[in-house]
Amino acid sequence: MSIPPSGQPATLRFARIQQLRMIGAILVIAAHAFADGAKYLHAGSRLSILSQTHLGVNLSFVISGFIICYTARGRERDWRLFLRRRLVRVVPLYWLLTILLFAIVMIRPELTKGTNLLSPLLLARSLSFTTFLSGASPLIYVGWTLEYEMLFYLLATLAMSRLERPWHVIPIVMASGVVGIALLDATIGVGMTGIRAITLDFTAGILLAYWFTEGRLPPRPATAVLVGFGVAFAVAVIAGEGLSMAVVPIATALVALAATRDRRGPMRSTVGRLLAAGGGATYSIYLTQVFTVSAMGKLAARFAPGLPLALFALLTVIVTVLAGLLVHRAIEKPLMRLLRPYSSPKPEAVQLSPAQAASSSG
């Protein structure tokens, strides 16, 4: 068996994918900075469109689908190892920062501004990634994306444990879900444009991983995703939300370009290498913004109320990235080292299905 299936070296690091991951995180922070800055500074900027495109979120989900499928088809073929690594990667830091925010709000309840952040039930739902079931936002408000990411992980785990060709079935199931949600939205207005977009991002990433490793797309999954996008885009255009769906192919094309260039050769640009190096810290940066963006807004409103919104956004991005890098180095990396035994392969525990065993022996 070659790892990955295309015979590419297992040590391929996807430097440009990491670079895109960092760029996506910066775009998300900028979007939140423009939105919060407009509220605190009562100012506007032409660049505020960044808060409406959601390109950063789309990039993150395409990359997630790509990396998950790529690694799972290579070195994480056992569903137990796959699930353990996803949980170890996502849960500890998210739980820690969620509990920290809850503690801060308990000490300074005036920071809630009338919201119900002190609710123990909200804390429980946030820690269990289930606030979407109640229509609320988690304590770490960007955690809503992690809740859907966790659903994707569970779907992938179930498919890997039960099906011979899980990565053919998952895109079809998810694209079918997108069509169903879009049709519901068209008839009764469920208002889930964002969910349709990130679901298609994830499935597009999976198809990219196939194309990257096999040099082709699996016909039925590819057709299902194209139909899903077509239906969802049509509904979004009718509802006046076409921009959200239009970003999906843009994000997909950017990830495809990055993966292709990674396969052709190493990155030589100094700036590019710095961005790629920061890509490993994007999870910490993504979560840390919940603290820094709001804090920067309060500080600006008090000490620099006349600060131009664009400059505020730039300063907020810089502060958030630096704070996230610190959290990554001081908290996330030690946590990963501590939990490494739980995310390492255990050969005696790995049980492949007969189909997987046959393909592995080839």
TrEMBL record:
<feature type="domain" description="Acyltransferase 3">
    <location>
        <begin position="16"/>
        <end position="325"/>
    </location>
</feature>
<feature type="transmembrane region" description="Helical">
    <location>
        <begin position="20"/>
        <end position="35"/>
    </location>
</feature>
<feature type="transmembrane region" description="Helical">
    <location>
        <begin position="224"/>
        <end position="240"/>
    </location>
</feature>
<feature type="transmembrane region" description="Helical">
    <location>
        <begin position="87"/>
        <end position="107"/>
    </location>
</feature>
<dbReference type="Pfam" id="PF01757">
    <property type="entry name" value="Acyl_transf_3"/>
</dbReference>
<dbReference type="InterPro" id="IPR002656">
    <property type="entry name" value="Acyl_transf_3_dom"/>
</dbReference>
<feature type="transmembrane region" description="Helical">
    <location>
        <begin position="55"/>
        <end position="75"/>
    </location>
</feature>
<keyword id="KW-0012">Acyltransferase</keyword>
<feature type="transmembrane region" description="Helical">
    <location>
        <begin position="127"/>
        <end position="146"/>
    </location>
</feature>
<keyword id="KW-0808">Transferase</keyword>
<feature type="transmembrane region" description="Helical">
    <location>
        <begin position="274"/>
        <end position="297"/>
    </location>
</feature>
<feature type="transmembrane region" description="Helical">
    <location>
        <begin position="309"/>
        <end position="331"/>
    </location>
</feature>
<feature type="transmembrane region" description="Helical">
    <location>
        <begin position="167"/>
        <end position="188"/>
    </location>
</feature>
<feature type="transmembrane region" description="Helical">
    <location>
        <begin position="246"/>
        <end position="262"/>
    </location>
</feature>
<keyword id="KW-1133">Transmembrane helix</keyword>
<keyword id="KW-0472">Membrane</keyword>
<feature type="transmembrane region" description="Helical">
    <location>
        <begin position="194"/>
        <end position="212"/>
    </location>
</feature>
<protein>
    <submittedName>
        <fullName>Acyltransferase</fullName>
    </submittedName>
</protein>
<dbReference type="GO" id="GO:0016746">
    <property type="term" value="F:acyltransferase activity"/>
</dbReference>
<dbReference type="InterPro" id="IPR050879">
    <property type="entry name" value="Acyltransferase_3"/>
</dbReference>
<keyword id="KW-0812">Transmembrane</keyword>
